Amino acid sequence: MICALASSVCFGTASVLQALGARAATPGTGAGVDVALFLRAVRQWRYLAGLSLDGIGFGLQIVALLTLPIYTVGAALAASLAVTAVVASWLLKVRLSRVEWSAVAVVCGGLAMLAVASGTEGEGTGSDALRWAMLATAFGVLGIGMLAGRLPEGPRALALGLGAGFGFGVVEVAVRLIDGIDLTNPAFYALLVGGGAAFLLLTSALQRGSVTTATAGAVLGETIGPAVVGVVWLGDRTREGLAWLAILGFTIAVAGALVLARFGEAPVPEPVPVPVPEPEPEPEDAGTEDPAP
């Protein structure tokens, strides 16, 4: 559980640092995915620090997935939005409403319930059919991205966000289906394809639609599906008699994360406009000559 929470802190803080790094980089002029902007951003120490935290967070996520039920890790990762909101309010001077501060507290309460109710990782190793299903789902995520790009702006952001969530969910399940690096294991390729597709879809969703809508879709996609797979096919269970508490904690944590969905991409406050002094009015008789005597 410590690894899951530490991973959440890493991902949430990384979002803010990367936002600061992107702000410091020279803005680009291209549309869509601006590779040149990324190359300029990585020259900023804050952006590099954010990428480093992402790497550490991913490693902690893997450790957590190998020792905890998937539903617990998924809820903890969704809680990274609460971390982003708190860090953004400190570093970026973003004002949180009372509802959003309440959502941060709700997320913490839900995670506390999960920590009490969660059992150990399920003993199921998954079947070959499940491994192939994860690989098919990973490629299906790419298909969702191709189809979603043709939708209007509102549905497109939601579809891309859901697709990204499914991709991240594939990663969560695939980690449980891999025992070391096995190039003959379909789950190994599902992890690579699912993670890459999820990153591309979420990036596209955040650039081409509503951050709140896209992030809400991603949170739902990466928590509910993997949790069901973990319970039904991998044997994830709760402590004796505490299934109700786990369900309640999971629901509360995810609901609180959805309220904070606008922090899916760390918000950058708009610069305060500098007032431009108005030109002094010219005298009424300016430019006129005295009449001849």
Q: What does it look like?
A:
The radius of gyration is 24 Å and the shape is globular. The protein is an all-alpha fold and 293 residues long. The longest helix has 25 residues. It has 11 helices and no strands.
Labels describing this entry:
mainly alpha, 293 residues
Number of helical segments with 4 or more residues: 11
**Secondary-structure element string:** HHHHHHHHHHH
Shape: globular
Question: What is the average of the pLDDT values?
Answer: 85
Give the strand tally: 0
Question: Which strand-content bin applies to the residues?
Answer: under 5%
User: Could you name the ranges where pLDDT drops below 50 across 5 or more consecutive residues?
Assistant: 29-34
Secondary structural class: mainly alpha
Biggest sheet architecture: none
Oligomer: single chain
- State the helicity in percent bands: 55-70%
Distance between the termini: 97 Å
Rg on CA atoms, Å = 24 Å
